[in-house]
């Protein structure tokens, strides 16, 4: 049996997307997501103390404890997390990412979205699926650096902090990210 290149790529893409869905959060429900969100937020605040002030000033925080990303030509990522307002979980969300281009590898990371205005939080919660785009300021801390709200990030309605990366994923891709409310 001979596989065409197209069939092989479709199979690898499907396998990658399915593998990305098994990111360790599991289906044990809200208690597991909340426990992982607590640990992730504690890790962020311990490793990057400047983020505490972002948390204190924010209207809400979306915590994605573990996002798994993999790709070979086509790729994808998936993770689940909790939206907190005033320190209490109010909703659960998934993040799904699709990409295509020259890429190979896999990685896992955590990320936290700080909603710096009530309007940004309201827009996120009311949308059927929030697509990340130009309205988010990304802050990717390097080991040993202090991450704080500078003038460029303090004016952004949403600040994303990506940290705790492991694995290797390289390439040049076009990608899209979507956050969707879920019932775990």
Automatic annotation (TrEMBL):
The keyword Signal applies. This is Twin-arginine translocation pathway signal. Residues 1-19 form the signal peptide. It comes from Thetidibacter halocola. Residues 97-179 form the Ysc84 actin-binding domain. Keywords: Signal.
